[in-house]
Input
Amino acid sequence: MSAVLSSVPSTPGVAPHAAGVWAAAAKRFRSDHVGVASLAIVVLFLLVVLASAVGLVAKDWQVERGVPDAPPTFVGPAKQTESIAVAGPSGPNVDISAVDPLAPRYKEWAEAAKKYETKESVKAQTLPFGADRLGRDVLAKATKGAQVSILVGVSAAVLATLIGTLLGAAAGFFGGKVGDFLEWVYNVFTAIPGILLIFAFAAVFPRGVGSVVLILGLAGWTGIYRLVRAEFIKHAVRDYVRSAEAIGASTASRMFRHILPNVSHVVLVQLSIHVVGFIKSEVILSYLGLGVGVDQVSWGTMLSEAQSELILGHWWQLAAATIFMAVFVTAFSLMTDALRDALDPKLRGLE
Amino acid sequence: MAAYLIRRLWQMVPTLFGVILLVFLLFKGFGGDPAEILAGQNATQAQVDAIRQQLGLNESLWTQFGIFLKQIVTFDWGKSWATNEAVSHLFATRMPATLTVMIPILLLDTLLAIPFAMGVAYVRGSLTDRSIMILTTVALSISFLVYVIVGQYVFAFQLGWFPVQGWSDSTWTNLWMYVPLPAMLSVMVGLAPQTRLYRTFFLDEIGHDYVRTARAKGMTERTVLLRHVLRNAMIPILTNVAVALPGIFTGSFLIEVFFSIPGLGRELWLAVNRSDYPVLQAFAIYIAVITMVVNLLTDVLYKLVDPRVVLK
Output
């Protein structure tokens, strides 16, 4: 993904002999300040994702570092509520070992318990952005959650783009029987409402990150297929493709070496649009318990925990997940808009 | 018209067959063994085998597909594995709740987005326009979940204006008591993208020659927008509503899960969690059928709205 992203500004170096379509697009992109700023934020997030994936940050997000529901540092520690202690028994300690059936074994258990090392750790009263119900650092969770949510969103978008592009290219290029068959597949997939398709896949696949990617990718390729197919139909009869055929270029070569680069801007923009959509979907799936596993954290699982915490007045987990997601998704959407404007100037100003 | 309808219905047959095949193969190929799901964790092998026999799982794939087709045609899916309720009954009783929530949402969404979008289109290019557009981008990037969690907390729990969740048997009670909060929250969230989209429809129309002519005649910008642009922009808007229409059967699943509304979406979610295959399969196929029929109806309606459209 990062390679795709960074290829946009860096392409001028690739084609120095002529200002190609990519160089021109990069130039247009650079002149869009909002787009460049969003790209910077997206790259920053991707670096955090990378750092978290290799274990540089948020590796110990599962460690309970604070007291349960520790508030953020800028709020200050929670007020100690006076707990009403139950008065202990005041009479003399009665020795009941004679009638206690467990008495002979107490010593044995005490010995066994000594084998296990227990460590008294000091729990922080406040953490930079608070702690969750178990005392885990919310900031670390949001960072780790960013890794899962963004990776799932990007991988699912890549998968959907791959399926959509391959099928769309085949349908548009070959037409005829192949085209009819793929159109039928497309019609079948679009006849079932998206969420129903996702639920049907979710019901049969096991839970986990890989499944979420698979579910979203399999349910979400139709839009890309449609666009790529239309482009391939248009390009398949163009002169340059016929010339390529005349000099003996193979079918695969014509499809992927000649036509694909000419429609790649469509694919790239679609990929970018789908990343945002799939991140949102992953968050919802994880919230519903159909997404990532219980030993993982994503923005969706954070939101689902935050719902019950909010009633107790612990708003920080909700705020952290929301802010992280809002910043990333906004930046990514604005970057997509700029990308689309840069790659397809015909659409400029439409939205 | 009749010929068109017949042809469209005929074209649905292969698609429908594909949907049935997809659902069948998906649950056969990837789903767990139904007999083991049904028997539970403490079942003996003999019990599992008995259930396999009873469900016809030992038959050939073709026979099983035949049984599947028969179930679809006769509307007889047997009973839900989880609740033992007849699937057809489940479908019929959950549908009204979904429609009670979704129809007001769809109506409000559309009726509010039109004036909003027209207002934004009126001040197009200005700072207001740009800031509203950026604001909607930010608003859109926050998960729908956050709006519902915070909305439910603030309006129902803190302020107490609405019940936190619930549902009754009377449609009217539902409409004035339980629907307002979910509807308000969805409309609030749905309005931003809708406004953005409709704005582009208005802007498309504003670029046309007839608008320039109207302005040249000396009409005020207001009149031009209300009398000329609005009417023409209604066509893409209606198309958009038509596209969204089939979504009302499943679109509200999050709202239903949050507010415990016994609708189709919530039932589907429960079915996924319980691996309740009959419910999932039946819902998938029937909702696909409904979607196709609604799409056909909207195409016909489209012709009635815009006489330029030629059905072919």
